[in-house]
């Protein structure tokens, strides 16, 4: 899909469909008025007849062809209620309507969808993200696509001259982010017999071949043994597919600029191990590598954009399986940091693979480290599917991530990391246990991680509730690539 910015009037580009907004009580926004003029008052007549009122969520398609093209009118609701949330909804209605049409090209009156308090760049970002999201299909494993494929291919974003520069910049950024989101979705959706630690390593190597600014390093099980990464190895022990620690170094900044380091949980399938999970919906545990998938997505977006900072993406990957060789509840392992862990539940494996990776990344002398993980079911209990949980040892970093989430709609919410919670991790036999009991499960998981991140600025993003959708709409969401990319853009 191709997005571009145009400053011509809405009726000029030769496209199959033109989209504009109608505010409540039949008030055409600027784009709709321009269209009306080009269509000899047809829209005014339809408004008068009450065919479209402009209510939020409503839409009307006026057929047309050739130079005239169709017009798609989107209800914006009352002007006074047109805030960021309302604009997002209108943009989603627009995106859904566009991709279900046979139209191959479209032009959109961007300013019609601009809510109060947001600039044109925000609208461009929202439009590109929503249309790309609506047009996403994962068909790699379908012999013949059942659903009608999306025809939409070229989208022009129509803006005023004065907004053109900002819109173009936003369009470039948003397109790169959409590429990253799609990468994260593809990796997440790939079945666990095809997506496993070594295949993720291959993806990193391929990306490093594709982008000059990227270097990939892969540590295999022998390297991990030599290193002393006992926690990653313990999680991978029950699997035929050995674990990997993957580093992707993106160099967009100066050689000596301290990098932002992203660490993604890459459990390519989580059975729970010997602490086996119940069978219902276990297939969804293929998504337990969505933290890793988001790291791939962000790195790809950085490469596409040529973001002028240094970013390291680290993926800590294993398959958590029950087996004669698998780790048992009660086993004690020595992590890369030297601290010992009594593994009381083999299903709390994410924090184990993260612990070693978080120690390993000290070598980068990072400006900040952000780990991203589908870490706890408790996170879904706390926040549902609306937001990620954010915790960490630095208020500035946590706040920056929260505001990046607000700006993109890929939201997070902060939970406390009070020292008192640490007590829940006490073990009689090792430096710590890997579980902290039922209360505050998301927080005690982060407490565990905090013991491996004391030497740098760190935030943890638990994406258990937002990384994928269940049920009829089952599929990876690509979150939190938009939040992380907004954060990085704000740093650059
Ligand atoms: N990958 C799961 C967390 C998860 C569960 C994410 C359901 C999304 C949906 C993680 O490895 C896990 O199993 N966590 C346990 C921890 C517990 C044993 C302390 C959990 O949340 O139940
Ligand atoms: Mn688990
Ligand atoms: Zn897991």
Percentage of residues in DSSP E strands: 15-25%
How does the helix and strand content classify structurally? Answer: alpha/beta
Cα end-to-end separation: 26 Å
Small molecules held by this entry:
ligand BES, manganese (II) ion, zinc ion
User: Helical segment tally?
Assistant: 14
The description of the largest β-sheet is: 8 strands, mixed
> For the largest beta sheet, what order do the strands appear in spatially?
8-9-11-10-14-18-15-16
The general outline is: elongated
Given this structure, which CATH class of the largest domain is correct? Answer: Alpha Beta
Number of strands: 20
Q: Measured on Cα atoms, how large is the radius of gyration? A: 24 Å
Oligomeric nature of the chains? single chain
CATH architecture descriptor of the largest domain: 3-Layer(aba) Sandwich
Low-confidence parts: none
Number of folding domains?
2
In CATH terms, what is the fold-level topology of the largest domain?
Aminopeptidase
Helix content: 25-40%
**Mean of residue pLDDT values:** 97
Summarize the structure in words.
The protein has helices at 30-38, 42-48, 84-100, 120-135, 164-189, 197-210, 221-227, 230-236, 290-305, 350-360, 377-383, 395-408, 441-450, 481-491; strands at 2-6, 17-23, 27-28, 59-62, 70-77, 105-109, 154-158, 214-219, 244-251, 260-270, 310-320, 332-334, 340-342, 368-373, 388-392, 412-414, 432-433, 458-462, 468-469, 475-476. The mean pLDDT is 97. With 492 residues, it is an alpha/beta fold. It has 14 helices and 20 strands. Helix content is 35%, strand content 21%. The strands form 4 sheets. It has an 8-stranded mixed β-sheet, with helices on both faces. Strands 1, 2, 3, 4, 5, 6 and 7 form a 7-stranded mixed β-sheet that branches. α3 runs parallel beside α4, α8 packs antiparallel against α10 and α10 packs parallel to α13. The chain has 2 domains: 2-160, Leucine Aminopeptidase, subunit E, domain 1, CATH 3.40.220.10; 181-491, Aminopeptidase.
